[in-house]
Amino acid sequence: MRSCASAVLSAAFSLSLGVLLVQPLPVRAVTSYANDFVDPTYVLAKDFSNVTAEAQATIVSWAQSLAREGPWSDSWPNCSSVGNTTALTDEEVWTTCPYETRDGQFNPDGRLVNDVGAFSDLADAVLYNALAWAIKGSGTYSGNVATFVKAWFLDADTAMNPNLAYAQMARGPDGQVGQHTGVLDLKCMAKLVSGVLILREGQAAEWTSDIDTQFSAWAANYTTWLTTASIALEEEAAENNHGTFYYNQLAALQVLVGDTAGAKATLEKYFTTQYMWQIDASGDQESLHKSQQAQTNPRPPTQTNAKIGAYIGYDAWNLTTSNGTTIKSALDYALTQGAGTETASELYPDVVAVGAAYGDAGGKYAAWMLANAKKAYPEDAQFFWNQPFSDSGLVKTGGSSSTGSSGSGNSVSGGADASSDNGAARGAWSAVAAMGAAVLVAAVL
Ligand SMILES: *[C@@H]1O[C@H](CO)[C@@H](O)[C@H](O)[C@H]1NC(C)=O
Ligand SMILES: *[C@@H]1O[C@H](CO)[C@@H](O)[C@H](O)[C@H]1NC(C)=O
Ligand SMILES: *[C@@H]1O[C@H](CO)[C@@H](O)[C@H](O)[C@H]1NC(C)=O
Ligand SMILES: *[C@@H]1O[C@H](CO)[C@@H](O)[C@H](O)[C@H]1NC(C)=O
Ligand SMILES: *[C@@H]1O[C@H](CO)[C@@H](O)[C@H](O)[C@H]1NC(C)=O
Ligand SMILES: *[C@@H]1O[C@H](CO)[C@@H](O)[C@H](O)[C@H]1NC(C)=O
């Protein structure tokens, strides 16, 4: 549970930096990627390339750090230390001042109760603990997932209601109701669902059929809200990152409840509507629907939609827009732009994912990662699931350097030594990556 004792600004950054600040540096800080979906089939096959050994160690370390923070549940504000900051009482502000929408900026009210940050931490904790269970085989990690899911979704005292009717509430004279932008607050459901699927399909003992049944019922109820409530449908229609993230959530939840046909239809809808006009002929996926000051790039959630599709037999990586461009075109364009409004680290998962999905025959993407992310890039967690991708010969396995060829197919799964080194000598760039992630989280809300 978090209180609102931290002021608005620090609340806005508490998601990623909170984890960073409580850890003794230089342990590699947890990076909260914009979103992702990790294919449970790949994880459970446990046929991991040797070059993922360091990424596996990072995942186990992140699972442990996040688990120390949980469980999370949605919470009420504790404003005892905030003090009076305006001549108006809060109640007067909430009921008399019209609220404006400023895309890309936080509604400060929403930060008094940092449920968005708590949910993002929860999603990361579920994903990394499920992966750590698959990598290490210890029930501690699957037990963490069960505890966290129960606290957020199932236990009567702490469970979230299965709707976002009040998310990103606009107060003011006509207010006291949620806005469609608040649907974005559960976008990381795609990460959480992939974690749950790993435990379910891997038959982790701690993920009991009782928890599975109850969580599926919660998800079915919420999915009904997500496909019928007026603000949810407004979010679905949004042409920018908001609409794209909506499809991440809905498709992932449909997969979770066993509605594969529904999930395919959901992805089909995205890839025949918003996607068709999101990427222009140059590959620019940002400009068409960009708001003034926000990074509202739908590139990361588009990749997540493609990853969910790949898992259920809907191949989206090669689908072309009305301009004949693809997901790869959007990444290639982004690489020509320099960091711009993004930090380079925000591109890392997208570069590795595109290299894994389309191949990296000329070594262009690996060279870019080496130049920008430097030598530590194969220890980034996402390097584990975005395979095959070259480690540029950086990973030391079994006392010998790997050749740099990707996807060797040799397994280090369950290796007792995979997490023995939690990165004490690493992570020079990881603080920067975490900052980038925090900025990204701030910007898309
Ligand atoms: C609220 O926060 C204050 C410190 O700011 C703390 O002393 C108090 O115990 C908190 N109240 C609750 C109910 O957590
Ligand atoms: C806050 O404002 C109220 C109403 O004006 C006042 O009664 C109270 O003493 C103020 N509290 C602080 C901590 O300044
Ligand atoms: C969905 O959840 C709400 C709130 O918990 C509950 O009132 C409603 O009966 C549920 N609907 C279904 C179909 O389970
Ligand atoms: C590219 O797509 C945009 C948005 O749909 C459209 O306005 C433009 O005409 C297209 N350009 C080409 C060359 O197809
Ligand atoms: C995309 O199309 C190319 C050429 O048809 C094919 O070789 C490749 O396997 C496809 N990629 C995916 C991810 O389906
Ligand atoms: C991969 O790991 C296996 C088993 O530990 C080892 O025998 C092999 O040499 C490793 N391959 C490389 C390229 O390091």
From TrEMBL:
Keywords: Lyase, Signal. Residues 395-417 are annotated as: Disordered. Residues 1-29 form the signal peptide. One of its GO terms (molecular function) is lyase activity. It comes from the Eukaryota. It holds the Pfam family Alginate_lyase. Residues 90-341 form the Alginate lyase domain. GO terms for cellular component: periplasmic space. This is Alginate lyase domain-containing protein.
